[in-house]
Write a structure and sequence with these properties.
Elements lengths: L1 H32 L5 H17 L5 H19 L2 H24 L2 H7 L4 H21 L7 H12 L4 H19 L1 H21 L5 E8 L2 H12 L4 E6 L6 E10 H14 L4 E7 L13
Antiparallel strand pairs: 1-3, 1-4, 2-3
Length: 294
Amino acid sequence: MKDRFLLTARRTALVLAGAFLLAFNISTFVRVGELYPGSFLGLALLIQEIFLHYGNIHLPYSLFYFSLNLVPAIICFKFVGKKFTLFSVIAIITSGFLTDWMPHFMPAVLLNFINTQDVLLCAVFGGLLNALAISLTLHADASIGGTYFIGTLISEKLCKDSSNYVFAINCGILAVAGILFGLEKALYSIIFQFATIMAIRSLYRNYQQRTLLIVTNKPEEIHKTIYETTHHGATLVDCLGSFEKDTRTLLYSVVTASQVKKLIPAIRKIDSAAFINVLETEQLNGRFRLQPKD
């Protein structure tokens, strides 16, 4: 019971921190640079700008952001996980309201400090801050919604990193922004989105796979450790060292990139002389277990 409470508290804290950073980023770097950050965030800003520019009607950002995420949230509730969707909805609602609220209550000195005239700086550092916010929610087993809902569905079904698909969808949204409000801001927004995707790949690796090739004389103990640590199995192959002519066992296993960091020290404890080669796995076909969303 205590562990469950601590896990829930941790997830809630990460989701709220991610939502706050997301709203802060939109209220500062995104607004100052007049950027469109992609995903449903950018689409909501784009629709808001269309109403303001063509109809002189100012509507709250949260109205569009909540409406756009309604259907994807229902789909994820059914096909991904109930708690995943619940925490994602918390992130969406919190970031939406904070985005509308912050410009009216944020200290002017802070806005003036960030009020740079260099749009490229806004695109790069705004993209990095956006990645940090998104990664916090992902580490809470949640999402900020929009195309990241779609990305989670793709990753769950295909067992692969979906960032390229998300980037492609976001570029489509930015193309519309370029047609309506000028190509320059859309191109800067693509830089923003590219910085976001590259940073997320470094900050969140649960959908990236790594292949482990381990040469050892303690295969059973290491195989047991791999399974207990990652819930992944291994293939064992007898082999002969060409230098010392000693018989060894080669363990072949594929795990997620985030599991490698804690798995290698565990293997070293069992066999300090083990030879470990970690390879980046580009494509994987076959059964590969991902921890299901709750």
